[in-house]
Amino acid sequence: MRTLVGIGASPGIVIGKAYVVHSESFRIFPRRLTDEEVEGEIDRFKEAVAASRQEILVVKEAFLEKGHSPDLTEIFDTHIHLLEDPVLTDETIRRVREEKRNVEFIFSQNVEAIEERFSSVPDEYLRQRLQDIQAVSGRILRKLLRKERQSLSHLSEKVVLIAHDLTPAETASMDKENVLAFATDVGGRTSHMAIMAKALEIPAVVGVQTVTQYVKNDDIVIVDGLQGTVIVAPDEQMLNEYQVRRERYLESERLLTQLKDLPAQTVDGHIVTLSANIDLPEEIGSAVGHGASGIGLFRTEFLFLNRTVPPSEDEQTETYSQAARLVSPDPITIRSLDIGGDKLLGSDVRYQEVNPFMGCRAIRFCLAHPEIFKPQLRAILRATAHGRVRLIVPMVTSLSELRRAKAMLDEARDELRAEGIPFDPEMPVGVMIETPSAVIIADVLAQEVDFFSIGTNDLIQYALAVDRVNERIAHLYEPTHPGILRMLKLVVDASRKAGVSLSICGEIAGDLPLALVLVGLGVRELSMAAAAIPEVKKLIRSVSLKDIERLASRLLELSTGEDVRAEIQRTIAQLVPNHKDYELFTWART
Amino acid sequence: MRRPRKREGYALKRKVIVQNEVGLHARPAKNLVSELNKYTSDVYIEKDGYRVNAKSIIGVLTLAAVKGTELMVIAEGEDAEEVLDVVERMFKECLGESPQVNQ
């Protein structure tokens, strides 16, 4: 048994038989051409290019016909451009004429030269373009060699696909009936594979790095798209554990249908709003399907990543407006850009910081770059014409920062007004409470905002000074730390006193026992990954507010994280009879 | 596609400097390449003795030219002069990526 860790790209848990898509290594030998053969060889090449182009177009059309967004197909156009690039085509044809050798040989030499050149490029973003070139040249080469790649659209049994890499075309044409899940060596959360897997609802883990090394055909593998792990040849205990997890996941999917239209209401009649966190407008369908009442957090970073120039105001307006329309009549909270220059520009050395977590990121970065911030604010304002849009500003540490952000927003409003562009002047504005200073001055911030949202992931890291990615101290990341509970209480009290609404959008909102604690502390809106909503809803519907309020006040009296966890566990065992079904404290397991 | 015959010895050169904040990345490179493909001249770009076909996006990307890089553009053909003027102007205008993000 071996557990491989990657990136959860598309949710779901699958146990199945592996089918390995072998990386291609073609054996190509040089062969001399007679003068008569040369033009025929060149025609063969042109046909291979034309056929490749045709195939890509077919996949693109089929994908669009399934109702997927045209944004997802931009990659196919890029590939078609590359197919026609003179360095690939003209250069190959020229050399076939000159050197009189078979076209496969010349072409693969040509591609190798390009690969070599790219591998020495210092820029990570540009190096990644090499993957596109390889996808395209591999396709041409297969045509020339009359070797079809193992087809993924006509698999005859249900398998878990294991591959080094999948081209966008391959991912897009997967048959959901037979591809139970997939795992790849390469790829990130925002790779084309990941985006398409999500759209197709195929569980996937990408970026595993060594998955093709460790998996053989017909191995039993577990793909956990929720945690981003692949377990190869699991032992019995692991298999049993995962069968339970899989059941739980499926159960939560089943709960959906039962609970979808029911409110998250405690037995004594108090309603909690459960909303979803998303990165892409494409995820809204699934969020609504899981019973989300609105989007509590729309992260906008995705729009800005993997590109060198920020999206234009118009492009952003379109994305935000589309999202607002899809969620309407429920509200959507759009968070302004929450990254630093390092990520935004991918390559630019000048933006690298020793400690980016405490560096120029989020609102700090935005205030320093009005040329990026202002268009985003204008775009968010413009989206208010299409639904109930709220703006939230991340990483605020002081009132001055908030004021500067609001001043920028005022400028954006004035401009739009002067230009006669419609928007809602009353758009609610909130701050993320995710730094210890914001917690302490929550009463002050509350005077100048419409709502708060606590970003617990960052708040816990900053408050406990723990980087959870650092294995040596990851165990110190403790949402049940009494310091954290007291902070939450402070914010709840400040928001109540000032009459601003409060939600929580960290991971702990979707953690079953902690969700109860948060409601007990007085939070009435929880925003979480859509998949967590049904179980949280079921749990809330099984308890009374009175009981969990008592629990919360008992917890505030305790002195250690261990005591807090023990008390929660004890209470849940009493309040929720089938508590064993619940996986307690998911954060502690990873 | 066959290009018209070039006039012998009609190769013109001009220096340009990359002004784009992020260097010669995918989008600016694409803008340059698609503009150049409107002309019949052969166009090359040289950086430290490394020469690429300026009508190829792959070629231009492998230059990995960051802001401030000096490049030599070479055009050969009937419209070489015109091509160099266009290239010079495009580099000055950041290859269609205006420094202001807001358009």
From TrEMBL, chain B:
Name of the molecule in the record: HPr family phosphocarrier protein
Keyword Cytoplasm assigned: yes
Domain HPr: 11-98
UniProt cross-references to CDD domains, sorted A to Z: PTS-HPr_like (cd00367)
Source organism per UniProt: Candidatus Abyssobacteria bacterium SURF_17
Transmembrane segments: none
UniProt keyword list: Cytoplasm, Phosphotransferase system
Family note: Belongs to the HPr family.
